[in-house]
């Protein structure tokens, strides 16, 4: 993982909601700063405890440097150059309008337009588009040596790539602008279109959405005709940036079967799009103590997982006399079984990865992610010893009676 944190790189974190993507992004930002790189983390609406950990409570859409005092209080080098910002979706869109709509009156009509509000606040892809635009601005400024981008949560990791393109096609659509060109007669909105088919389309839209909706769309395309072309062109440049060798994509996932299936699909989708996945992080894989014990042990002993398996025999009759003790042993045995299944599943997954896609492990840390010290601990795992399919085979063999997978 440390090999990806190079001067001039942009690291883009992909992943569905709930896998800990924002935590991993913040930890990698800290790791990059520890490599003596001027670093910025662009994060999207992080959980409150993570905002507190990074000092983001009062931040907006501009990068702010973490103070030396805050770093020193966490036992870190106070000279680290780490900045962070929270994505301001509406602010990013408004900034584009301010830049490309040169006439003040036109600019205000766009900003006040109901369709523009829906487009920037609710349209699928508006967050991803805003994130890419802020990334483009930061790259253009040359202020930072590396950027770490925490992408907006989505049902599928690849939506960050696809959604802005769909949005651009809408804005860049000549047919949409033609369809919604307004003609007003006696104060009533009407569409005088040459095509009879188009009139049927407009009639149906008015029936379901109401005339005011069409009016606001029409007014938007007229007022924003100049800005829309500039915004679409801007995205095409950003899209080219995503395909440059300096951009490294990292997928964050967990050990659940459905998450790993999604990861496999993403690798194929990215290859088809000409994008290259550099690494996969298996986050919250086992607990911290078990992972450290298993990853360092070469003697075939699985330690605490073996101890869990021996509990029932050691406690004997005490389990029948104490229902609470029995429930605790049931819970621990269930945990051990799940851990073994996760280990075997991740070992199989590792063998299916292309050689170019590296693997990193971040276990569930004992203290939780509450402050910079905890983030630094996560970073240590991410950039620590390299994890290979052979390593995972060995660990799987330690926790089961099965032999490791043969090398492929």
Which structural class matches the secondary elements? alpha/beta
Shape: elongated
Distance between termini? 23 Å
CATH superfamily of the domain at 2-176 and 245-284: P-loop containing nucleotide triphosphate hydrolases
CATH class of the domain at 2-176 and 245-284: Alpha Beta
Q: Helicity range of the residues?
A: 55-70%
Query: What integer is the average pLDDT?
Result: 80
Order of helices and strands: EHEHEHEHHHHEHHEEHHHEHEHHHHEHH
Overall CATH architecture of the domain at 2-176 and 245-284: 3-Layer(aba) Sandwich
Spatially, the strands of the biggest sheet line up as: 3-4-2-5-1-8-9-10
**Proportion of residues in extended strands:** 5-15%
CATH topology of the domain at 2-176 and 245-284: Rossmann fold
Number of helices: 19
How does the major sheet shape up?
8 strands, mixed
Strand element count: 10
Low-confidence parts, pLDDT < 50 over ≥5 residues? 182-197, 402-408
């Amino acid at each position: 993982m440390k090999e990806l944190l190079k001067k001039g790189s942009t690291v883009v974190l992909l992943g569905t909601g709930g896998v800990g993507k924002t935590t991993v992004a913040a930890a990698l930002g800290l790791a990059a700063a520890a490599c003596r790189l001027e670093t910025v983390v662009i994060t999207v609406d992080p959980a409150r405890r993570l905002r507190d950990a990074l000092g983001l409570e009062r931040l907006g859409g501009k990068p702010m440097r973490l103070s030396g005092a805050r770093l020193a209080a966490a036992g870190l080098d106070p000279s680290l150059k780490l900045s962070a910002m929270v994505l301001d979706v509406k602010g990013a869109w408004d900034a584009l309008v301010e830049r490309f709509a040169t006439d003040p009156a036109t600019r205000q009509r766009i900003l006040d337009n109901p369709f523009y509000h829906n487009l920037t606040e609710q349209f699928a892809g508006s967050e991803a588009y805003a994130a890419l635009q802020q990334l483009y601005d930061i790259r253009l400024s040359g202020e930072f040596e590396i950027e770490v981008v925490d992408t907006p949560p989505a049902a599928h990791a690849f939506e960050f790539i696809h959604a802005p393109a769909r949005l651009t096609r809408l804005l860049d659509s000549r047919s949409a602008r033609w369809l919604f060109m307004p003609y007003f007669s006696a104060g009533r909105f009407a569409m005088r279109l040459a095509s009879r088919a188009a009139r049927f389309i407009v009639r149906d839209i008015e029936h379901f959405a109401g005339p005011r909706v069409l009016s606001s769309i029409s007014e938007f395309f007229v007022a924003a005709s100049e800005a829309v072309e500039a915004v679409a062109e801007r995205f095409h440049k950003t899209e080219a940036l995503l395909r440059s060798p300096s951009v490294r994509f990292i997928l964050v996932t967990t050990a659940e079967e459905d998450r790993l299936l999604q990861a496999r699909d993403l690798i194929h989708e990215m290859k088809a799009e000409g994008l290259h996945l550099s690494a996969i992080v298996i986050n919250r894989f086992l607990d911290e103590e078990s992972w450290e014990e298993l990853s360092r042990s070469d003697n075939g002993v699985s330690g605490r997982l073996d101890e869990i398996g021996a509990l029932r025999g050691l406690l004997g009759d005490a389990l029948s006399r104490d229902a609470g003790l029995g429930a605790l042993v049931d819970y621990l045995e269930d945990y051990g079984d799940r851990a073994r299944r996760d280990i075997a599943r991740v070992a199989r997954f590792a063998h299916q990865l292309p050689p170019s896609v590296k693997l990193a492990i971040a276990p569930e840390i004992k203290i939780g992610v509450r402050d910079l010290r905890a983030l630094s601990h996560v970073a240590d795992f991410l950039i620590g010893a390299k994890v290979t399919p052979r390593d995972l085979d060995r660990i799987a063999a330690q926790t089961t009676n099965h032999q490791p997978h043969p090398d492929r």
